[in-house]
Amino acid sequence: MxxxxxxxxxxxxxxxxxxxxxxxxxxxxxxxxxxxxGLFFVPAVLFAEADxxxxxxELQQIVDKNVGIVDKSMKLxxxxxxxxxxxxKENVDAxxxxxxxxxxILVEKNISEEFRIWTLxxxxxxxxxxxxxxxxxxxPRLVAIIDELDGQKDFxxxxxxxxxxxxxxxxxxxxxxxGDRRVTxxxxxxxxxxxxxAKENPGSEAxxxxxxxxxxxxxxxxxxxxxxxxxxIAPIFIPYFIESNRKVAAQSxxxxxxxxxxxxxxxxxxxxxxxxxPFNPALLKDKVVLIQFWGTWCAPCKEEIPNLIDLYExxxxxxxxxxxxxxxxxxxxxxxxxxQFLATTTFGSKRKTIPWLVLHEGIAxxxxxxxxxxxxxxxxxxxxxxxxxxxxxLKLHPMPSTLDAEINMALNAVELTPEEQLKADTARQQxxxxxxxxxxxxxKLIEKK
Length: 449
Known about the structure:
There is one protein chain. Helices cover 64% and strands 6% of the residues. Strand 1 (288-294), helix 10 and strand 2 form a beta-alpha-beta unit. By secondary structure, the protein is of the alpha/beta class. The protein has three domains: 56-157 and 170-180, no CATH class; 186-261, no CATH class; 281-416 and 426-435, Glutaredoxin, CATH 3.40.30.10.
């Protein structure tokens, strides 16, 4: 019996008590570890929170310290145009310090909504200023934050002010992309923004900026670049000008749009030759035609004539025609003087005279008839327009260096069958009628205003 107790029961009891002892020790050990960790972790958390709070306070102090300097800068009349007046380095550095501090604050996860709004307002504030000083870097950021916060009431008044600055800067960038202070801007998007802002904020600066943009585009020296810009803004601005009773601006833009939107559309060619006979448009049927607006006083016009004579002689037998339109309606450019000029003036090394038909706008003007020059707003010379066999404009302002190739390509275009030609002629007539109807309707709306 005794042996059995020691051999069987006692060992079981020993291991059981050992297990209980180990279990109690394990719990104690775990509690000990937790206690140790707590002694280190809780202060670390408290210190981290204190450190974060201190860091945010330091960033806030940077903003508060510099925003006053920026505020004084913003009150200066800096923003009428780019480059008119530059800020001092101190002002720009202060604005950058505020911007960088707000960027650091906004990446913090635990800031309050109130503090976030406070920070964003100051970020927008300095971005307005910096967008004028370093356009490539800060202007896109200003546009992005305006779009991001659009519709949020907390920023409504500040975003309205910021948007006006975006429109001011954009109206300059839209006509002169490139350069050290420039960034490429989408003119259509800018025009849409201007109209939307003007409608949402009646009587705001946007109305002035819209007309300024149109004026600036019309001052672009390169005719081809100018017409490309007008072709973009015309469909957006014309309805707004009519709606807001801007008769002069609407009429001017309608005329410019007729010219700028010519590519892919038919061109009206009419007038009188130097003998006073009405021009017959049938003379241009199935021909590739180059229209030259010119004057005897225009030096660049006379400089391009030798090249045009060479092209005329090279391609005339294949169906190429040139029509010269003398744009003078009064003064020294009378019909007799133009006749004398054509009869006595020679061009090029071979001393050749102009071989193509010339129309004179003065005859139409003397009969109180609208002139092609006025209809298409031809205010500068020379202007060249290339028309395809189907009567649609191929190129507005073709480059002298590419004109030969463009004429050759147009002449080599696949000829249409009689059925296709009839269909094309019908479509062109319908298109001409539609364009004329739209123009007349727009002019009637202007008159009603």
